[in-house]
C-alpha cells in the first residue's frame, strides 16, 4: 500500500487532514471513503488495516479526521452528528475534484451511521458498508454515563473517553436525537452491506438487525464472529476489508484484470496508453514491470534490471539452501542482496581511454543465519557461484527473435 497525506476544506472552511491509500502495483479501479468510529481518528488501527486490505484489492481509500479530531482543524465541542455527515460529503467532493468520484463508502461504529446518511447525499456512491454501526446515533449517549444529565442541565460537560477528555454540548445530544439510521436506511437506494459481531459488547448486534430490516434490497449481512467492536485484531480488520472489496465488486464496476497466454516461459504485454507499466506472466504467475517515476514510469513494479537482479538473488538463495540440506548443514535463513550497474572491469587497462570499457556488473552480498564454521561458510560462498542463473550470466548466450503473425 502506498499512502500519502492530503488536506481538504469542509463546508465550514475548516481544513481536514487525511490520507490517501493506494494499491502498490496498479492504478486504483475505484475510490472509497472510510468514516472512522466515534472520537477515533484516521490513524486508528482498524481504519488503517481495513483501508490497507481494500487497497490490496485495488481500491484507493481516503481516510480522514472528522472536524475537531486528530490533525483536523476545528473545535470538537462545536461538532455533532450532522457535521460528520457534512464532512463525508466534503471528502467525496475532494476526491471527485482531485482523483475520482468515490463509488464505495465504509463506516465504522458511529461513522457507519453517518455513512448511511451521507450515502444518500453523494450521487457517485453505489455501495455502502457499515461495521458495528448503531441503528440510532443516540446509542453513543451510553458512553456519557452520569455526565449526560449534566450536559442536558448545564448545557455542556467534559466526558472522558478512552483516556481523553472531550467537551460535549447540549446541541450534540439534540442533534443525535434528531437522526434515525432506520429511517435513513428506508430511503437508501444503494447496495448495503451490514457487518456486525455477535460478541460486540459496545453496540449490540440487535442494531444490525434493525438496520437490515429497514433497508431495501440489495442488502447483505455478514457476521463478524469472534470480533470485538473496535476491530483491534489486525486479522479481523483485514478480513473485513477483503470481504467488503469482494462484495462491492457485485455492485460497482471493477475491471477484470487483463490476462495473457503464452507457450513460452514468460510473456510481456504493453499497451500504448500504459506508458512503461508492463503486464507480465512468468510461468503461471502475473506481475507488473515498470520504470521509476523520475524517468516517466509509475513505479507500479520492478524495472527489467531489478527483475534480472532478483532472478540472481532468488536462484542463489535456492542453490545455497539445496546444497546445505543435502549436506545436512542447518541454515535458518539466507539473504542474497543484489544490485546492478555498469562498472569498469577489474584491472581494466582501457578504463581511462575507452568509456565503452564498462561492463555489466552484479554486486551480490550474502547473509547466512546459521552455526556453520568458517570452512563451511567459504564452501557456501563457492556454491553461490554455481547457481544456474549465475552460470547463465557468465556463459555465451543468444537471443533468437521472430515476429508472430
TrEMBL record:
InterPro entries with a match to the protein in the record: AB_hydrolase_1, AB_hydrolase_fold, KH_dom-like_a/b, OsmC/Ohr_fam, OsmC/Ohrsf
Organism: Rasiella rasia
Keywords annotated in UniProt: Hydrolase
Record carries keyword Hydrolase: yes
Nucleus keyword on record: no
Domain AB hydrolase-1: 33-124
Pfam family name, one: OsmC
Molecular function via GO: hydrolase activity
Alphabetized SUPFAM superfamilies for the sequence: alpha/beta-Hydrolases (SSF53474), OsmC-like (SSF82784)
Protein name in the entry: Alpha/beta fold hydrolase
Amino acid at each position: 500500500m502506498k499512502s500519502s497525506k492530503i488536506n481538504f476544506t469542509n463546508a465550514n472552511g475548516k481544513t481536514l487532514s487525511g490520507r490517501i491509500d493506494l494499491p502498490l502495483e496498479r492504478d486504483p479501479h475505484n475510490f472509497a471513503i472510510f468514516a472512522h468510529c466515534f472520537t477515533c481518528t484516521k490513524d486508528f488501527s482498524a481504519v488503517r488495516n481495513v483501508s490497507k486490505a481494500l487497497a490490496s484489492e485495488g481500491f484507493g481509500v481516503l481516510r480522514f479526521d472528522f472536524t475537531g479530531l486528530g490533525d483536523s482543524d476545528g473545535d470538537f465541542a462545536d461538532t455533532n452528528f450532522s457535521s460528520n455527515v457534512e464532512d463525508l460529503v466534503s471528502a467525496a467532493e475532494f476526491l471527485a475534484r482531485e482523483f475520482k468520484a468515490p463509488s464505495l463508502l465504509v463506516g465504522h461504529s458511529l461513522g457507519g451511521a453517518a455513512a448511511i446518511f451521507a450515502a444518500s447525499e453523494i450521487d457517485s456512491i453505489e455501495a455502502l458498508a457499515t461495521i458495528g454501526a448503531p441503528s440510532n446515533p443516540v446509542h453513543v449517549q451510553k458512553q456519557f454515563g452520569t455526565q449526560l444529565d449534566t450536559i442536558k442541565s448545564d448545557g455542556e460537560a467534559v466526558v472522558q473517553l478512552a483516556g481523553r477528555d472531550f467537551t460535549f454540548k447540549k446541541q450534540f445530544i439534540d442533534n443525535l436525537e434528531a437522526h434515525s439510521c432506520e429511517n435513513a436506511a428506508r430511503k437508501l437506494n444503494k447496495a448495503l452491506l451490514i457487518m456486525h459481531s455477535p460478541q460486540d459488547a459496545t453496540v449490540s448486534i440487535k442494531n444490525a438487525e434493525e438496520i437490515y430490516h429497514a433497508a431495501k434490497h440489495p442488502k447483505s449481512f455478514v457476521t463478524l464472529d469472534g470480533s470485538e467492536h473496535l476491530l483491534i485484531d489486525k486479522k479481523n480488520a483485514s478480513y473485513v476489508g477483503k470481504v467488503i472489496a469482494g462484495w462491492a465488486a457485485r455492485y460497482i464496476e471493477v475491471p477484470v484484470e487483463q490476462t495473457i497466454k503464452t507457450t513460452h516461459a514468460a510473456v510481456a504485454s504493453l499497451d500504448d496508453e500504459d506508458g512503461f507499466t508492463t503486464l507480465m506472466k512468468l510461468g503461471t504467475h502475473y506481475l507488473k514491470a515498470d520504470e521509476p517515476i523520475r524517468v516517466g514510469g509509475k513505479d507500479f513494479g520492478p524495472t527489467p534490471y531489478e527483475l534480472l537482479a532478483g532472478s540472481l538473488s532468488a536462484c542463489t538463495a535456492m542453490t545455497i539452501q539445496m546444497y546445505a540440506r543435502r549436506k545436512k548443514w542447518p541454515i535458518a535463513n539466507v539473504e542474497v542482496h543484489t544490485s546492478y550497474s555498469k562498472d569498469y572491469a577489474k584491472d581494466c587497462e582501457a578504463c581511462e581511454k575507452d568509456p565503452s570499457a564498462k561492463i555489466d556488473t552484479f554486486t551480490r552480498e550474502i547473509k547466512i543465519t546459521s552455526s556453520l564454521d568458517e570452512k563451511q561458510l567459504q564452501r557456501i560462498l563457492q556454491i553461490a557461484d554455481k547457481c544456474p542463473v549465475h552460470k547463465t550470466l557468465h556463459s555465451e548466450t543468444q537471443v533468437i527473435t521472430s515476429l508472430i503473425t
